[in-house]
Amino acid sequence: MMPELSGYEVLEKLAEIEGFQTPVIMVTAQSDAPGIAREARTGAIEHISKPYRVEELEDTVARVLAFTPDELARRAAALRLRAETFDGVAHLRETLDEREDPKRRRR
Hints:
Blueprint: H1 7-15, E1 24-28, H2 33-41, E2 44-49, H3 54-66, H4 69-100
Parallel strand pairs: 1-2
């Protein structure tokens, strides 16, 4: 846990910096689909779950450093699309759950 800001908040701050293009690898104990989707929406290019092996970290860093700017842009776009798809599926599930059980409707 970071003391001042969450990793998501750091990503959001970085996204506000005009021209910021440094690839970000999230290293976090959170490995659920909503968390990974949020990382992608806020600009992370890779995700490593804790605990991790040093070799996994080294391989991921090497892979990210080998990306060309075009490859990074395509990867970021693909990850954002996956996140949007995940959000759409989650919304659809909520809608279907509400139809099955009207008491679950949000107010």
